[in-house]
Design brief:
The chain is α+β, with helices and mostly antiparallel strands and 476 residues long. 44% of the residues lie in helices and 19% in strands. The longest helix has 66 residues. The chain is elongated, with a radius of gyration of 44 Å.
Length: 476
């Protein structure tokens, strides 16, 4: 009879009844899971807020760079012919340039090599000898050739030392490189100086005819002399070896790209790069508005008649304080600096409505930068007499850091609390589930015992009935 269950046979209380009872017993579990879900949603909401605050912190931090407000830009009437790359120290102004001649490279074109190559640059040259290249800087590079070397090997060896010279020009060990590029064109060796300008290349032979065998002797080779760049800037004649010139106008790098037609010129205007400052402030405003909207969404009270309409962090005092303080810090006066600007509205940033969204009038910023960029920078960042950071950036980001700091930030503390609470709930759920297993076992045991008892009672009743019936039969 082992393994046979009598539960429900007599009492009518079967497995389905126990399942219903257990469903009632497990009702408190819903409270645990609902609470855990709510805590997890709050934790995720704070993580999202942390991400947005981190981004806002970075956008505001960009306002602490002097390059944001002192950058220069140069606009040429024809960027394809001539352009300028200004540093932040470049003086604003207008420059008229006429490119008379671009700087070119010196080249040596060898003659056809006088032996059967069969068109294969990897065929051994059967030459034993050496030669040297002396570049315009006086650096001599020696090359040795043996009979197994092909024309391709010669070119590779030259270029290997060229790269050494280019990559380590101040290293005396590597400075043995020639700075000359070699190539093979139509069975000829062609050498080209990497640097432009009026620079000479010398070839030295070994007296054994090596240069002759390579088509590089003076009778066979052709020399194309490099030329210096010549141009006029605001009427001043200038000559340089390179097409990229940074020593003519302080703070400006001139880039010559094409030669002008006779009598033509292009104009380049160098001015303050307001776009960089405008873009930086716009990026800050966009991130601020996005962050504020997200916070307001999480704080929303919702409709009492609509379950679930409230924000995930509705009523959270820390978030309410963050929302209020951000709005106040961004628009309030900045004390402690000598910029002459009391608040950011004087630089074109103001609130749109009572909800605190920001808008930007770039014209105010342009005017302020044009008048005195240093005052604009002092408003955003400067130091006081105690060498303490003051200004808009330190004021706002100092507060944001109190929330996002990885060491002691408010959000870090909240996450730790959320983690602890979730662990506690998980332990309570595990303990509750263990109790439910025992409770179910108790129900099964109790109702099984009830069925057994009822079966025994029925058996006894049957026996007693039989005895009574037997006794009645004897009396008759």
């Amino acid at each position: 009879m082992a393994g046979i269950s009598f539960m429900g046979s007599y009492s009518g209380i079967d497995r389905s009844v126990i399942d219903q009872l257990m469903e009632v017993e497990r009702l408190p579990l819903k409270q645990y899971t609902t609470k855990k879900t709510s805590i997890t949603e709050q934790q995720n909401a704070w993580k999202d807020i942390n991400t947005r605050l981190n981004s806002l912190y970075g956008k505001i931090k960009s306002l602490q760079s002097s390059d944001t407000f002192t950058s220069r830009k140069a606009i040429s009437t024809n960027e394809d012919i001539v352009s300028m790359s200004p540093s932040k120290n470049a003086a604003t102004g207008t420059y008229k340039l006429n490119v008379e001649q671009l700087a070119t490279n010196t080249s040596i074109i060898g003659g056809k090599i006088n032996f059967p190559l069969t068109g294969n640059t990897e065929t051994p040259l059967n030459i034993n000898g050496n030669f040297s290249i002396v570049n315009a800087d006086g650096v001599q590079t020696d090359f040795e050739i043996n009979e197994s070397h092909s024309l391709k090997d010669v070119v590779n060896n030259i270029n290997l030392k060229t790269n050494n010279y280019k990559d380590n020009p101040t290293d005396e060990v590597e400075k043995t490189g020639s700075g000359i590029n070699a190539s093979i064109i139509d069975g000829r060796l062609v050498f080209t100086d990497e640097k432009t300008g009026d620079r000479k290349i010398q070839l030295l032979g070994d007296g054994k005819g090596t240069l002759v065998s390579l088509g590089l002797n003076s009778a066979a080779r052709e020399v194309v002399d490099g030329k210096n760049a010549t141009f006029t800037i605001n009427g001043v004649e200038v000559e340089r070896q390179s097409n990229t010139i940074s020593d003519v106008v302080e703070g400006l790098t001139i880039n010559l790209k094409k030669q002008h037609e006779t009598g033509q010129y292009d104009t380049i205007n160098v001015g303050i790069d307001n776009e960089k400052a405008e873009t930086t402030i716009k990026d800050f405003i966009d991130q601020y508005n996005s962050t504020i909207r997200f916070i307001e969404d999480k704080l929303a009270a919702g409709d009492p008649e609509v379950p679930g309409s409230a924000g995930t962090l509705s009523g959270d005092s820390s978030l309410m304080r963050l929302h209020s303080s951000l709005r106040s810090l961004v628009t309030s006066k900045v004390n402690g600096n000598e910029s002459g600007f009391s608040d950011i509205s004087q630089l074109g940033v103001s609130t749109i409505d009572k909800f605190g969204q920001l808008q930007f009038d770039a014209s105010k910023l342009k005017t302020a930068i044009a008048e005195d960029p240093q005052k604009v920078m002092d408003f955003f960042f400067s130091k006081n007499e105690k060498n303490e950071d003051v200004g808009f950036v330190s004021k706002v980001n100092g507060y944001i850091d109190s929330f996002i700091s990885k060491e002691n930030g408010i959000i870090k503390g909240k996450n730790e609390t959320f983690d602890k609470t979730i662990k506690d709930i998980n332990r309570q759920i595990e303990s509750f589930e263990a109790r439910m297993v025992k409770k179910e076992e108790q129900y099964v045991k109790t109702f099984t015992a009830l069925d057994v008892a009822m079966m025994q009672a029925e058996s006894q009743m049957t026996w007693l009935q039989g005895q009574v019936d037997s006794m009645n039969g004897i009396k008759r």
